[in-house]
Amino acid sequence: MTLKIDGMEVSARGSLNGQAPRCEHLDIAPGAEQGSPQCAGCLVLGLSWTRLLVCLTCGWVACSDDSPGGHAREHYRETDHPVVGALEPETTWRWCYVHERIV
Questions:
Q1: Closest alpha carbon to 12 in 103, 99, 85
Q2: How far is the C-alpha of 67 from the C-alpha of 17, rounded, in Å?
């Protein structure tokens, strides 16, 4: 949903300065030790992945939505573990499946 404030369209989910509200799911993600740097689902199916994500609740590593398998989202659907992060150590990118946004 968007709101019009002073002629500008602003998302009701974000604040006026463009920052998204804090995601409380980060507080419940214990930062588990990550698993092997490969997608087990893709290996079984003979697929390749575009990017790997790590579940911040349990450490499960799986492929991203832009990969043919989309196994990280499948893991969320099976477990309700809400937040994943990029597997690359040089990035702090994280995604919350509940809020469907970067956190």
A1: 99
A2: 33
- pTM for the full predicted model: 0.73
Tell me how far apart the alpha carbons of residues 48 and 28 are, in angstroms, rounded to a whole number.
31
DSSP sequence for 31-75 = -PPP--SS-HHHHHHT---S-EEEETTT--EEE-TTSSS-HHHHH
Tokens representing residue 60 in the block: 């499960």
DSSP label of 3: E
Q: How many residues does the chain have?
A: 103
Of 43, 42, 94, 31, which Cα lies nearest the Cα of 68? 42
Q: Which two tokens stand for residue 29?
A: 């993600």
Q: For the segment 84-101, what is each residue's pLDDT rounded down to a tens digit?
A: 999 887 888 889 999 898
